[in-house]
């Protein structure tokens, strides 16, 4: 997968406690296909990569929350440094909801909110 340009929307995620239902819905609606993300599975997470018809690389994922977090659909922005971007967000009135930096099996990522409370994600692609 090619590295997306920094500071662009590069991924999306649908989080749900019914990943089978989400996979069925979006698969039938848009013709998307799904595959288990091996690194996430090693960490005990249910994360399914989404591919578009004719697309060579995944563009998003379905995250099975097991009820541990609220359902959401978010866009995710590729950034050069997740921790530094979280600091900037907080300086601009937003909040860091959760952050994983130094993740062994996946990219650094965070969920953050803007000053109005809208959730979105950040990640730094692995080289």
Automatic annotation (TrEMBL):
<dbReference type="InterPro" id="IPR029068">
    <property type="entry name" value="Glyas_Bleomycin-R_OHBP_Dase"/>
</dbReference>
<dbReference type="Pfam" id="PF00903">
    <property type="entry name" value="Glyoxalase"/>
</dbReference>
<dbReference type="InterPro" id="IPR052164">
    <property type="entry name" value="Anthracycline_SecMetBiosynth"/>
</dbReference>
<feature type="domain" description="VOC">
    <location>
        <begin position="8"/>
        <end position="125"/>
    </location>
</feature>
<protein>
    <recommendedName>
        <fullName>VOC domain-containing protein</fullName>
    </recommendedName>
</protein>
<dbReference type="InterPro" id="IPR004360">
    <property type="entry name" value="Glyas_Fos-R_dOase_dom"/>
</dbReference>
<dbReference type="InterPro" id="IPR037523">
    <property type="entry name" value="VOC_core"/>
</dbReference>
